[in-house]
Structure formats: C-alpha cells, structure tokens
Amino acid sequence: MTLKFIARLRSSRVVVQDQLEVPDQAAVGGGGDGGDCCWAKLPPELLREVLLMIEDSETRWPQRKTVVACAGVCSSWRLIVKEIVKFPEISGKLTFPISVKQPGPKDGLLHCFIKRNRSTHTYCLYLSLTNALTDDGKFLLAARKHKRPTHNDYIISLRAEDMSRGSSSYVGKLRSNYLGNRYTILAGQSAHTGSKMAKNHSPRLPNLKHASSKVHLVNYSMAHISYELEVFGSRGPRRMQCIMGTIPTASTAPEEPARARSEFSGLNTDIFQSNPIAHSEPASMGNFLSGSLCGQKNGALVLINKAPRWNEQLHCWCLNFHGRVTVASVKNFQLVASPENRKIVLQFGKVGKDLFTMDYQYPISAFQAFAICLSSFDTKVACE
C-alpha cells in the first residue's frame, strides 16, 4: 500500500525541493488550507501511519525528497510532517531548508564537504551521502566572496545561482576586517516576518504572488571569530577562537543541554518553523573588527582550535582527523569547547586541490560551521 501511495504522490502536482530551491505557491501552500486537495480528505489516523512509514523508510537523500514532498501537499499534511520529522540534533538528518540553521546531531559528527571554485570565488557546501571522501552529495549552501576596500564579505545563500543579499534564498554573511584576523557571522532575517506572525498567529503563508520580489532583510550578529596575530613573525599553526553569541556555555554540558533553536526566515515558508533563540546583545561590529573583545563573552559558548602536535619524523604539525583529512594545510583545524574537553564540535580539512571536508555536530549548525570554515579560506596578514 505504501509503495502505491508514494507512486501516486510522485505523480501528483507536488513540487519536490530536490535542490533546496525556493518553493512555489503550489508546493508551499498545496491548495491553501487543503480544502481543494483530495489528499486532505484522508482520515488523520491513516495519514499519520502512512507518513510515519515513509519517514522511517527514508534515511538518506535522495530518498528523503518524498518526505519533503509530503509536507508540500496541503496544510494538514504539513502539520503532521512537522510533528513526525525530528530536529537534526535528535535525528541526525537534514530534511528541510531550516535544518541548516538548527544545531547538528548530538550522537556524532555529521559529514559534509566543501567545493571551491577559484575563478568565481564561490564555495558550495554538500551533505555527504556515503562514507567516501568524495561523492555527489546533497547540496546545502553556497557562498561567494566579495572584496571591499576595507573588508571582505562572504554572502551565503540556499541557491548557488542566486547569491544576492536581496533574494529570498539569502541566509546570512561572513564579514572580515582589513587584516583578515577578525570575522563576524551575520544571520539574515526578514524584517517583517516576526511582526506578521505576532499579529496573525496563523501558520498560513502570505500570498507569494503579491509579495515583492525583493525581500527586506536585516542582519543580526550570531558569532565572532578571531585569529591570533603573529606580531613577532614566528611561524606556526593558526590559533583561532569562536565566540558563539547565540549559544550558551551550558550547551556543552551533558546534564543541561541547550533548549534554544535558531530561527530561519530566509524563506517565506512554515514547513518547519522553530522557536527563535534569544539573540545576544549585539556589540558594535565595528568595535569587534577593529580589535575590541570586551564584553563579548557574557556566558556565550567559546570554541578554540585544538592545538596540533609537532611530529619529529614528518617535521610538521599534526592533528588526528581519523582519515577525514588527507592533505596537509594551514587551513586545517579542529574546534573544541575547552582544552580539557576532547569532544570535537567542528573539524575542517583538505582532501584535494579544491575539495575540503567539514564535519560538525551539536550545538552549532551547518550555517555556522560553513561560515567558520569560510574564514579559514580568507587571506590572513601576519596570522601565520
């Protein structure tokens, strides 16, 4: 019965978000309240059992696109799918676009990789579908570097073909200072989304046909990254520190896990809404980029890179990446919460000329991990 049901579903008018594209009105609304959709007339008990079977049977992409399709049939289906599909920190699965801004799994690192295009200054993040270091992967995010007179910006988007700040696929950006030793991760958020949801208290979507093509967005500071300067010209591995302004220190304590979720509103969709995390009091980005770190921590989670060890036989600095990194590079790093805490929150390393692995886990998200890795690509004056 389930196979016939999926076959009929795939032959229907549902639009599948196979490449995390911005859904159209039919895919998102599915007929608005579902009154015009024949699928909405199924008994809720039967529908829930069928969707549970589909969710249990689909563990990896591209099969999970059927779960995404189910959420786009109508509003009643969407509500049930929202109840069935668990957060990435519990399930370890990235299903909907909002998953890229939710904390990673708690039971282990989620394997991803980054492809760099030197000619276009673009970077694409993919979710690994196999245990191999190279596979086709599932596209998650893309970024493009923009050089400014006094700093560099990396615009991060859900679509590789549309990386403008005014598009609905805009996720956020990474901004550096002139020396390339300090960075700020800025998350994009629709300026009108919060007020509309607060007034209407309705999960229904606004009519996208009448919406403006240019989305008005505001950025809020999510994290700060700093690299230690080598003022005396000594050569050695990079030393970095990440202050995660929207993640409390208690998130790394097993007895008191963080309850907060990151809000994703880059897309006008309620397929998988989450509770917004309390934004940290944003200190002046100009002060941070110019060198001031005063008052930045305030109980926020601070990640530092794991110190490598000097190998006398190889005559180089070494870290154990457990086979996930194969090429020596100054860009390679592992982030932990403290020198005593051996749990790796994020690791990044080179496996080819323009291919890098990125593995992350709770409490950071794919978006935060991607932005931190982008800072390692950037040119650094007097940092190594």
UniProtKB/TrEMBL annotation:
Give the protein's recorded name: Tubby-like F-box protein
The Tubby C-terminal domain sits at: 100-379
Could you say which protein family the record assigns here? Answer: Belongs to the TUB family.
> What Gene3D superfamilies does the annotation carry?
Tubby Protein, Chain A
* Upper lineage: Eukaryota, Viridiplantae, Streptophyta, Embryophyta, Tracheophyta
From the UniProt record, give one GO term of the biological process aspect. regulation of DNA-templated transcription
Q: Which species is the source of this protein?
A: Gossypium hirsutum
Cited InterPro entries? Tubby-like_C, Tubby_C, Tubby_C_CS
Pfam short name (any one): Tub
State the PROSITE patterns in the record.
TUB_1, TUB_2
